[in-house]
Amino acid sequence: NIGDSAFAYCSSIKSIIIPDSVTGIGYNAFAMCTNLAEIILPTNLKKVELTVFNDTIWKTNTTTSEKPAGVTVENNIVYLNGSTLLGCIATSAAQVTVKEGVKIIAGNAYSNFTSITSVILPSTIEYIGFEAFLATSLSAVVIKATTPPEISSSAFQTVSVVYVPDESVELYRNAPIWAAHNIQPMSVIGL
Length: 191
Known about the structure:
The protein is mostly beta strands. It is built from 2 helices and 15 strands. The strands form 4 sheets. Strands 5-6-7-9-11-13 form a 6-stranded mixed β-sheet, with no helix packed on it. It has a 5-stranded parallel β-sheet with strand order 8-10-12-14-15. It is globular, with a radius of gyration of 17 Å.
């Protein structure tokens, strides 16, 4: 893994190739590398935080017509290799549904979108990053994954209830960090 702030403020870095052996990139790992324009990321990332590439040319280009390799934008959502949700560009929606196939939600992905009150996460979700839903109005989460995904302790700060598959309620209630949430079966809301 590449640790938090490992290469932060290294303005001499212009391009990087991160090998497939790397499965996680920490908070601010390449932040403020102001000349970093080309990044080749491993295809098997399991953890990534959006702030990893803050203030880089690469991150700026994720929202332009000259997107970096592997980056797509669908309905104002930035994806990497289709399975990593890097962030939301804009939304006024109250409910957010993350599409099936997404495995990772990067840290700060939906931060500061105060309109969000509920989110539905796919069965494929494996990791939810640091402060992924910080400063939202999120009160309810539906998670279709039968195995509790790894989660940052600050991913859901205002959530009052988390709905999970009925057969997974005890798994979530006993899982690290999830145990601190009010875990309820999805059947109580008709799912």
